[in-house]
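Hello,

Our lab assistant flagged a job as stuck in the queue for most of the afternoon. It eventually completed. Since we weren't sure the result was trustworthy after the delay, we are filing this so someone can double-check. Below is the sequence as submitted and the structure that was eventually returned. Let us know if re-running is recommended.
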Amino acid sequence: MKNLKRHLLIAGACLVAWTHAAWAQFPDKPVTLVVPFAAGGPSDKIARDLAEALRKPLGQTVIVDNTAGAGGTIGAARVARAKPDGYTLLVHHIGLATAPALYKKLPYNTLADFEYLGLINDAPSVLIGRTTLAANNLGELRKWIAESDGRVNLANAGVGSASHLCGLMLQNALKSKMTTVPYKGTAPAMTDLIGGQVDLMCEQATNAVPQIEGKKVKVFGVSSTDRLALPALAQTPTPTLAEAGLPGFNVTVWHGLYAPRGTPPEVLARLNAALRAALKDPDLIKRQEALGLRIVTDARLAPSGHKAFVQAEMERWTQVIKDSGETAE
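-- returned structure --
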């Protein structure tokens, strides 16, 4: 019996040593970043820029794979069920934190089924409107909304999208109920806003800046606590919505990196180190800033800080969504 125990201990020690040695070689094949939205959107753009920046610190090709549908929940579920070896990762935005309140049933547990690797960026939104609106600033807009008696059409890119969430917060802050008009994506919503079929949209700066530059829409304010340092907004200084009369208004669309639950600690450490290195890449920083995005450099870049932040966002948005009554099936 003693010999058997000794042999088992030796075998266990050998297995642990072999496991550590095996993961020390990670990654030895391409890594896939799953984006739970269609190609061409802001999350896809961010993931592709990140993939290029991760290639050098990981020493491997990084592939972007779009798995769209159900407000991002299909792609998230795919990663939650993936083999926990670090080769299948998720790039997701604020929707990961709002999905539990928006959907009655989710095929994953947001806090339990993922390993949190670090936040990537913050993306402020801008409140924009059709060019034919009589209002030219937030004060005039608030008066026009109040006089419209609920007949204001507020576009969004679908349930759970950045524009949907920002719109909910806007109605809450204004204490005004608008008619929300959901679209199947940002492009058709923006097309109708430019064409004057809808009145307003609270959209991520990444998508709105080209329309502002082309003077195809009016801009009323920035959703973050700081003004955007972009040429398109520098020509006509645009206040934050908080400055313009909505104290405390702060909505940013952030993106984070996740692995399936159970991914080995050695792999998680390697991925977090690679993420930190990628976010210092000058080319990545330049491309992100050109879109109005801010690279995360604070405690949220650490796995523990990232998870704590997402949990706080879940609590914050649950009440907003509950008050709005706008949920998905």
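-- support follow-up --
The delay was a queue issue, not a problem with the job. The result is valid. DSSP finds twelve helices and ten strands in the chain. The chain has two domains: 29-123+252-324, 124-234.
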